[in-house]
Predict the structure.
Amino acid sequence: MSFDVVVIGGGHAGAEAARAAARLGCRTGLFTLKRELIAQMSCNPAIGGIAKGHLVREVDALGGLMGEAIDAVGIQFRLLNTSRGPAVWSPRAQADKKLYRRQVQAMLAAEPNLEIVEGEVAGLLMDGAAVAGIRMRDGSEARAAAVVITSGTFLNGLIHVGDTTYPAGRSGEPAAQLLGESLKLLGLDCGRLKTGTPPRLDGRTIDWTQFEPQPGDAEPTPFSFLTRRIEREQVLCYSTFTNERTHQVIRDNLHRSPLYSGQIAGVGPRYCPSVEDKVVKFPARDRHQIFLEPEGLDTHETYVNGLSTSMPADVQEAMIASIPGLEKAVMLRPGYAIEYDFVQPTELRPTLETKKIAGLFLGGQINGTSGYEEAACQGLMAGINAALRVQGRPGFVLSRTEAYIGTLVDDLIARGADEPYRMFTSRAEFRLHLRIDNADRRLTPLGRKLGLVTDERWQLWEAKQRRMEKLDKLLATGTRPGDGAPAAQMLKRPEVTLADFDPWIAARLPELAAEQQAADPAGWERKTVETAIKFEGYLAQQRRHMDQLLAAEGKTIPDGFDFTLAGLSREIQEKLGRVRPATLGQAARIPGVTPAAVSLLLVHLELRKAKSKRVSI
């Protein structure tokens, strides 16, 4: 077998990587253990959430698949953080996990340049310091100019349920032990992380009257800019709380928890802890919220969000029975913890190519992240850059000023991962610019230039920009009778909204009002125009900070630069030498690298540049 690009792993990162590489014209092979489990939602059957929804919107704006897939099969949609400003609004959708998997598989099957191959990858084929393909467990080989590894939790995966442990990539699937060991032999800096999942319950055995219903939004917010409106009926989720009885069951059995017995060595996610961790670390809290979420329309399986645990099965059953409404609930599957290998992301270039092995790209949990959304955006970037490398084109990198995706990648490669990385709006210092409503305005032209954005998407994008420009021009120059100031000036008042101008807009530009209602019934493009006007001063201030960052990013550090500079402490020299930042801005974001060290580094870069000019003359 021979491909341009090989992608290892069929999770959310692998699906994005494979389709991106194929769409860019590369003959792509997606290697996975089981074809029918591509895009399996092994944990929470939901997409989006705080900041995660931003990532999905950006993936969609670039031409990725996750947004379209969840819009097609979502069973409950909610826009989060609406009590706060538009910078932190973020969509979330509950999925029918079986339909989601099938939807993604159908989207991949429609790509003519993509071939799906079943089998276990055992190692990489090398040509010196460059990857040359993959070797399968059965001894067969596949040649490729670039390889993307998106192995999720499969690398030397080990599941824990109480004192029971067994190798697995996720429940019911084998771990990728051979591939994990081969990466260590290649000299990549590997570590160990842990994540977990809660028990699943039989919904027919739950007393639903004991819980608070959590309905979806009356007007669902789509993830994809191609989706005009979500019109299917939405299901209910429910919320409740643990109680003192629950906590006592946990305290009485802590000695049986692999998390506290020393059985688990990997570091777990700080922001999504197990319930036993919550009880131990927050002893003053007498309850913790949990959510009961359906896993699909044709199943009674219910996900207990907030009750992640690796306690023994009998302890889990006692915990569940202690909660009113769950006294008779039948546990279909216990929760479990899983430890797995990851590669320190400081091993990566901004393109997600490894520094030590040319042509090898990594995406998703192998880079120390958590979550489907974080995985998807990395898979997309790794797949794009793998294809670009094969084609001899420059790499594609998003900066912190352009996207949450850029923030995530920059955080990983500059700081590394000592726990599973999760995206938050607070990580994006330019979040007022990086909103969900303008993700297409920021990124779709870049996706079009790459070749990911279809003609259909591009035509819709151009029509949207024309409508927004017409509305913006009218608001900037037009004055309602009696106002005495342009509409845009009036809009800056907190009590005034764009809806107050609807009759006036309809009278001045009736065709525009009709077009916007037909193309965007939820009014998101109008929200973009309104937000830009209302927050004009804040946006201008943030833009100045963005310019300062871009200036620092413009100071590139050559490959092979010697960081053992006089005046730098040994600790800072070691950190710079390990991460090998590509720019001065990236160097400044490495923990422990001081402003004085950055200034000294700048001096040496300028001296090197001046010396180079003298030599060339």
